[in-house]
Amino acid sequence: MNIELEKRQIVEELNYVSDEWVLKAIKRLLNLDNEDDVPEEHKQILADRIKKHKSGQAKIVDWDEAKGRLLGDK
Fold first, then answer.
1. How far apart are CA 30 and CA 20, in angstroms?
2. Which sequence spans correspond to the domains of the chain?
3. Concatenated DSSP letters for 7-54?
4. pLDDT tens digits for 6-23?
5. CA separation for the pair 32, 24 (Å, rounded)
6. How far is 28 from 9, CA to CA, in rounded Å?
7. Engineered SS bond to 58: which of 17, 34, 52, 67, CB 3.0-4.6 Å?
8. How far is CA 15 from CA 9, 19, 42, in A?
């Protein structure tokens, strides 16, 4: 495999990419995206939930129970 040839091919093909999501994915893969898609408020909620889970304060539901609730079985 010729790495330099592969890189040139990829760069050439990028000239024809018009899909915004493909470009965003490539930027993410290359760690070029400086965007933080997750608001601080959401990060704090997640941190609080993880803390409660680790301390045993969170009510845990296994998959079968959750599935049953979603399907109206319980």
1. 15
2. 1-35, 40-71
3. HHHHHHHHTT---HHHHHHHHHHTT------S-HHHHHHHHHHHHHHH
4. 999 999 999 999 999 999
5. 9
6. 19
7. 52
8. 10, 11, 36
